[in-house]
Amino acid sequence: MKSRAASTLRMLAGIAALIGFALPSGAASSGSGLDLSNVDRSVPPSVDFYRFAIGGWLARTTIPADRAEWGSFDQADRTTIERLRRLLESPDQSLAPVGSERRKVGDFYAACTDLEGIEANGLSALAPVLRRIAALRSVSQLASVAAESFALVPSFANSPLFSFGPEQNPKDATHVIASLSQGGLTMDTRDDYLERDPHSLKIRRAYAAYVGRVFALLGDSAARGAAETRAVLSLETALAKASKEPADLRDPLANYHPMPMEAVVSLSPHFAWRLYFAGTGLSNAHAVLMDVGQPGFFTALDALLSSAPLDSWKSYLRWHAVSGNTAAEPKAFRIAALAFRRAYYGVTSEPPRSESCTRATSNALGFAVGSLYARSYFPPKARARARREVASIKAQLHEDLETLAWMGPVTRAHALAKLAKLNTSKVGYPDHPLRYTRLTVGSADYLADVIAANRFEFRRQIAKIGKPTDRSDWGITPQTVNAYYDPSMNEIVVPAGILQPPFFDPNADDAVNFGGIGAVIGHELTHGFDDQGTDYDGDGNLKPWISPRDAARFRVRVGCIIAQANAYAVGDGLDLHLNGRLVAGEATADLGGITLSFRALQASLGGRPAAPIAGFTAQQRFYLSFAQIWRSKIRPLAERAQVLGDPHPVSRYRVDATVSDADPFYAAFGVAPGTPMYREPGKRCRIW
Ligand SMILES: [Zn+2]
What we know:
The chain has helices at residues 49-60, 72-89, 91-94, 101-113, 115-121, 127-134, 142-150, 191-194, 198-217, 222-241, 261-267, 273-280, 295-307, 310-323, 331-345, 353-364, 366-377, 380-403, 409-421, 446-463, 510-526, 548-566, 580-605, 618-629, 636-645, 651-660, 663-669; strands at 7-8, 69-71, 163-168, 176-181, 258-259, 290-292, 423-428, 484-486, 491-495, 569-570, 576-577, 632-634. It is an alpha+beta fold and 688 residues long. The strands form 4 sheets. Strands 1-8-9-7 form a 4-stranded mixed beta sheet, with helices on one face. The protein is globular, with a radius of gyration of 25 Å.
């Protein structure tokens, strides 16, 4: 289980879900552990470090048509997907015994690639739920259909009405409670529904066209479709208005409101909660604690339930039932979805089907696919080396917490106690992966298989509610190119997917690995001690331990980062700046990561001067490696979406701002006063 507070290295859903592969992979490293063809020596590092470090790559790279963004994460992901595709297409899977996990993986993939079968089956797998929506006679019956609809979609994030799932009790980390939070939107952020700038208006027009097109495909008349589209937009806009801004979701205490089910019922009396919980399979709802993240949202939802006509809700539920799984639906639906993504992100084509299907299988049967991947591509030697990296960075954090000047003795004692309990054992893959024994696929109807997989995952999540916390659970699969820190588990998870170049290379030297995966590990570890991390103790309980005086000192230091980010212009021609308050946590972790990891490099060198490799010192290659992992090209529209809703800053900022706050960077590249990269020592942000 991933708590809603878990901090990933990079946004998991949204843009990342659209990626595909179309470019040849980059040139091989030349013994330096770095791809030196990425370096642009025509630009001095003191003038524009990002260009110097990856200008060669920027010059020769175009974003593939099916992608909103293209960078090191996407390239590593492409490598993984290509490896997985070969595994999924192998007879080892397709000819494995019926009922085995291997066979389920092979069957799911095969059904996905059978486009003729998908056309022939149409939306018949959705027929039961569409019939129930059509038969609704009152708003009070809506809850049971909503419960059923939840299980249709692949993630809690795009479920109708609101989000519902398990959550480790923030005040008692040993138990799992129910979590209810704002949601019910289709587009990524509330701003997409509310902003009045020309781009937002254009996106909303494209969205309305998409919704209208889907109703037309469902056979509705033009007049009826137009009315239904207005209903969907009006309900989603009302839900967007009732939602908090993304930056206001970062404060765990402000988004924690535990209450018994009766109190939830009185927050939204027009919603038949008992019917709803029974429909989701939560049999003992009256006995479990419920955390209502944003009570104001549920009050507003109630007003909407009592005021909006039943027909509007039916249109809304119908839209969500059909739009949640377009990749598994006939071509006309996929084309409609692509037209919207073109307006929203700027992508112009779908990924190759084999890639979409590999990704879909990797999502639906994630840990079964992850076991295949780890067995073939993540040898014990790589796991052992990665564990050593984690241990060296953790040792640096220990030293840092012991000596940080802004931290008083009481806070320091709490911090060290928390670090002692921080679990770093989840590296590569779980030793006891999730089993898919109770999932049945291979129905010869791919959409039905997708719904079965979604329902399996939904039931698995709901079954956690009211039970003791399972500390062996992983929030992302082994093949995912990402990492996270979860404050309610007090642990970092570093999957095999990110333990590959350019992040990690078991055959490269320390400078490259510390600049890459070392900075990633440091980023995640410091999350345990930042403005969110200091709210949780070593056992994962929401129990702030930083003293008020130290919290104030920390805020002053983060204020430096906020000001730095607010001044940073992004989105070619879109007149946008980073939202400092939104990205402060992630930018702080980036600075923490690079600070700790550089010290780990110095410790490993033990004061001995390392001979330069390919003309670069170990310290230089550390920073070059850091820039390599954040190399990225992004379409302006996608960058806009990222700036509005993603707590992670844009890639270029992650490099330039972070290194110019790091003192050793100046010595490594001889960056002198008066050059563009130079920042006065007194103006450099310092936290860790
Ligand atoms: Zn992070």
